[in-house]
Amino acid sequence: MAKAKKGRDQSGERKPSLGRRVGEGLNSVGEFGRSAVQNPRGLPRQAEGVFRRWFRKVWAVRGGGLYATGFAAMFLYLEIVEIVTDDLPTLLATNLLSSDIVGLIVSFVIDTFVNFVNALIWPVYVIAFAPPWGGFGLLLAFFVFDRFMTPRVEAWMNRDDPISERQETP
Q1: Element (H, E) at 4
Q2: Looking at residue 1, what DSSP letter applies?
């Protein structure tokens, strides 16, 4: 497999600069906030679109299937638990103008990295949940998921995707 040149993605196209990607991310956050204020009822639909795009990237990077779905579910679960049980109470108890906020940000980044690693090894948690049945269930889930769920998940991910619509139309 040929390595991509520096500054290029796998297809050989030039990747946008870091500044451009950060700017696009900030623009999307601004649009999300604007729409939340102007049309609060449309917020769930917009959040679902953001989640779908994120999940599509995870699906592509992790190879799709049950592993990618388990990774995304485990990562979201761990992040939500971390935010609700640790980060939010600490944030509410911290003076936003103090130096403690820097410690909170560093702690959040470190915890997110730990959650990422734990999400990568999610099958171990399933196997350890109820040995040996967890292992048998996981093996069965890999076969059943590929057969019945993968087409549904891919259809959901590609809904309203302009790239997939262009590829499907003759």
Answers
A1: none
A2: -
